[in-house]
Design brief:
The chain is built from nine helices and ten strands. It is α/β, with parallel strands linked by helices and 301 residues long. Strands 1, 2, 3, 4, 5, 6, 7, 8, 9 and 10 form a ten-stranded mixed β-sheet that branches. Helix 8 links the parallel strand 8 and strand 9.
Length: 301
């Protein structure tokens, strides 16, 4: 674990995380903000029992429109150890979780991998790696054989937009390579009783004013991963931040026309997956972060 000169994420900021936080906000300890059943993921992830979600603190992206800014950029959360994470994962399974959904944990990958190695023999539900898509080969190699389902974002079709909105100049290049490696590891999507057991499900949030970029990205996904190698989840839940942004389009919601035009392209390309209802663009769907599930003792059976 190279914490003295961190290269865990593709940003490779080189921070000495034993002394200070890196670009991602991560330091010498793993931090999380919430661990609980979550019912608002895709149906194949949440199922009826909910996904056992662990939200980690920090992020390698600086998305100006981030809905989880409290944990991604303000770094709210508390330190947890590898053994505590193992207890949390087993507890979520005991509570009836359909999957274990690890959200934005790339900058803590060595700790998470160690925890998964401890508990994997006791798990009978899929482990989901829910990330921004900005994952390095080093991170993904640690997860090989431990993660069953990859749930990456693919936010942009060009690096200029990625730099403007998320502060990362090589996002598209890195994400395409990362998703290719994810597909290599877990193969094509496989369902069992409605729950995704293996495979890659790419999320794409359609942004206001960016429908043509979204259409171009869908065409790129279809060309790069043909024959059902990946599924796609189209998201219409964009919610404008309380503080207005310089890009005026980001200060409004997605229109029905924008959403339907992108959805039409997905259908024409015969991309398999899911699409959100526009009614999901409400702040009530944004999780509350109050350290829920991080202090409870494990339940012995």
């Amino acid at each position: 674990m190279k914490l003295q000169h961190c290269t865990l994420c593709p940003k490779a900021c080189g921070a000495d995380r034993t002394r200070t936080a890196g670009w991602c906000g991560g330091g010498a300890e793993m931090r999380a903000a919430r661990a609980a059943l979550h019912f608002w993921e895709e149906p194949c992830i949440s199922g009826k029992g909910g996904a056992g979600v662990v939200f980690f603190s920090g992020c390698a992206l600086r998305c100006c429109f981030c809905q989880n800014r409290q944990i991604s950029q303000e770094w709210f959360g508390k330190a947890i150890s590898v053994s505590q994470l193992s207890e949390i994962l087993l507890r979520l399974q005991e509570q009836g979780a359909e999957t274990l959904d690890l959200v934005t944990g790339s900058h803590y990958a060595p700790w998470i991998a160690e925890s998964l190695q401890q508990v994997k023999p006791q798990l009978h539900i899929p482990v989901v790696w829910n990330s921004s898509g900005y994952d390095s080969p080093e991170i993904l190699s640690l997860l090989n054989g431990l993660v069953d389902v990859y749930l990456p974002d693919w936010k942009y079709v060009d690096n200029a937009t990625a730099e403007q909105y998320s502060g990362i100049s090589d996002y598209c290049t890195v994400t395409e390579q990362a998703i290719s490696e994810m597909v290599r590891q877990v193969g094509t999507p496989v369902l069992n009783h409605g729950i995704l057991q293996h495979g890659v499900l790419i999320r794409h949030l359609i942004l206001p004013g960016q429908r043509h970029a979204s259409m171009a990205l869908l065409r790129k996904i279809a060309a790069t991963f043909p024959d059902g190698q990946v599924w796609v989840s189209l998201m219409g839940q964009y919610t404008p931040p309380e503080t207005p942004l310089p890009d005026r389009h980001l200060n409004r919601r997605l229109t029905t026309m924008e959403y339907q035009s992108v959805l039409k392209v997905a259908q024409e390309l015969e991309l398999e997956g899911f699409s959100q209802d526009l009614t999901s663009a409400r702040k009530t769907y944004i999780p509350s972060f109050s350290l829920e599930g991080l202090d409870e003792p494990s339940q012995k059976t």
